[in-house]
Amino acid sequence: MIYKVSYVVLGGQHPGAIVSQEKPPQVGEVISLGEDRFEVIEVVDLIPPRGDFAHLHVTLRPIAQEMPR
User: Fold this and answer.
1) pLDDT at 11 over 70
2) Is the terminal CB of the chain with fewer CB neighbours within 10 Å at N or C?
């Protein structure tokens, strides 16, 4: 199955992304968009799956980056 995933980042500091992927994201999972890392906090089906496609809305929380020492 192919998942069309709309990633929306809380706080508006990142534009998010729309990505096609073979595995659905899971709550608590850490993902990378570019060089930034995020925690998945919500996954919602936008419409029921049709054939080999599913459409998901995923809300992300930015993960604070550690400062180099």
Assistant:
1) yes
2) C
